[in-house]
Amino acid sequence: MDQTKLNTLNCMDWKLLPPATDEMIERSMRVKGRFMGDPSHEYDTISVKKNEEEMASLELKVKEEERLTATIEQINREAAIVPRGAFIKTPLEQIHKNRSFGGLSVTEAGKLQSYLHFTEPVILKKKSQLLQANLEDSVDFLNSLEDDELKG
């Protein structure tokens, strides 16, 4: 699903961020440290570990705007959640927005099982056949937040 990502410096003027590419994400993940707050700021030289004993200095130009876009994309890939029923899966394995979804009821909105991770399912395949029998194939194709195990 396409999302619009905007950036602002003064909360009045908004600018559209460029879409994240895999190359942009790979380059941006090499930059360490805090954001500078200036979208035009360029990070210059980045040290890259070639192997265990050798450090190489690689000249990469990464703009802060690209790094911000890549960071947002990584967060969305790892932590995006959607309400149960907001998306459906067709028999051809395509995922579409459910046009008939009108939102969760007040009681359903308070339940953890009403929300799904919008990422590639992992736990779903590990459920027993008895638990899988109660699932709706077109709606329950993602992992539920109810299945999450808290660490720490």
TrEMBL record:
Main location: other
Compartments where found: Cell projection, Kinocilium; Cytoplasm, Cytoskeleton, Flagellum axoneme
PANTHER family linked to this entry: MITOCHONDRIAL RIBOSOMAL PROTEIN S18, RADIAL SPOKE HEAD PROTEIN 9 HOMOLOG
Coiled-coil ranges (or none): 48-78
Protein name, entry field: Radial spoke head protein 9 homolog
InterPro entries in the record: RSP9
UniProt KW keywords: Cell projection, Cilium, Cilium biogenesis/degradation, Coiled coil, Cytoplasm, Cytoskeleton, Flagellum
Biological process per Gene Ontology, one example term: axoneme assembly
CC annotations in GO: axoneme; kinocilium
